[in-house]
Specification:
Elements (H helix, E strand, L loop, with lengths): L14 E4 L1 H8 L3 H12 L3 E5 L2 H4 L4 H12 L2 E3 L3 H14 L3 H15 L5 E5 L4 H9 L8 E5 L1
Parallel strand pairs: 1-2, 1-4, 2-3, 4-5
């Protein structure tokens, strides 16, 4: 008798994207952030960060080791042509300055290109909301919902 193994595939229920504040809270052991990430993962949601985000959250010593461990469990998204093109469109549509808002635009562009529905964890209440609103004007009208921390 041949035994058939069932392959269990995690359903993809969207993406939870962490900006610098979200990742920073998690690295620093914030229990609410840990729980939020755990719930997201258990529900099939991918957890992602822009490759730029760890640069904003640099740590030393044991905290640096914890950061590297956590990043190994997340989907670290590269900054490629699609992301930079989307970020430029976000800056244009929102009217925000590229010099001041470049990293935020790249993070929101990264989120906008993730598998929906997308939740973006941030503490920013000025640039990120404007960029998320502008994302709705990108092809496919991606919606990036903000989760304030």
């Amino acid at each position: 008798m041949v035994s058939k193994r069932l392959k269990i595939r995690a359903k993809n229920e969207g993406t939870l994207v962490l900006d610098a504040r979200g990742l920073s809270l998690h690295v620093d052991g914030d229990e609410a952030m840990r729980a939020r990430i755990e719930v997201a993962q258990q529900s099939g949601r991918r957890v992602a960060v822009s490759v730029l985000t760890p640069l904003e959250v640099r740590r030393t010593g044991e905290a640096a080791k914890r950061l590297q461990f956590l990043l190994s469990r997340f989907d670290v998204k590269p900054v490629n042509d699609a992301v930079t093109d989307a970020a430029a469109k976000l800056l244009d549509a929102s009217g925000l300055d590229g010099h001041e808002c470049l990293v935020d635009a790249l993070v929101v562009a990264t989120a906008a290109l993730c598998t929906p529905p997308v939740l973006l964890v941030t503490s920013d209440k000025s640039h990120i909301p404007a960029l998320c609103k502008a994302a709705e004007e990108l092809p496919g009208s991606p919606r990036v919902k903000i989760v304030n921390v």
